[in-house]
Specification:
Largest sheet: 3 strands, antiparallel
Shape: globular
Distance between the termini: 36 Å
Radius of gyration: 14 Å
Strand order of the largest sheet: 1-2-3
Structural class: mainly alpha
């Protein structure tokens, strides 16, 4: 994969995760700074493994789940099981193209990464 395709995947992933953060009202300065750190790391990662650039959107989503767990708590919370014990969605596939937010309790795909607002509405 050439450099421009790698950068395109990084920008697409950043935009998707930012949209999901915004869907949950979690796109403040602290969260955006965490996202930029993750983007920087994944840029380096994709330079080392250009063929994996298509996996960057899902990896960025996972990076943000981990980063926000330390500062904000579990993110994003499952909209399908809101009446039960609150739990975070996971990203599947863990390393693959077309990542989705998936409920770990039911195994149901809730929304593609970048389209969490549709599941919230």
């Amino acid at each position: 994969m050439e450099q421009s395709a790698t950068e395109e995947a990084i920008h697409r992933g950043r935009a998707a995760v930012l949209a999901d953060l915004a869907a949950d009202g979690a796109a403040g300065p602290e969260e955006v700074s965490l996202l930029e750190q993750a983007v920087s790391h994944r840029r380096w990662w994709s330079e080392q493994w250009p063929a994996g650039a298509a996996f960057v959107p899902g990896l960025l989503a996972q990076d943000m789940c981990d980063a926000l767990l330390e500062t904000r708590g579990r993110w994003p919370l499952c909209p399908r099981c809101a009446s039960e014990d609150p739990h975070a969605l996971g990203v599947e596939p863990e390393l693959g193209e077309d990542p989705h937010w998936v409920c770990p309790v039911t195994g149901v795909a809730v929304a593609p990464v970048g389209r969490l607002a549709e599941a919230r509405g």
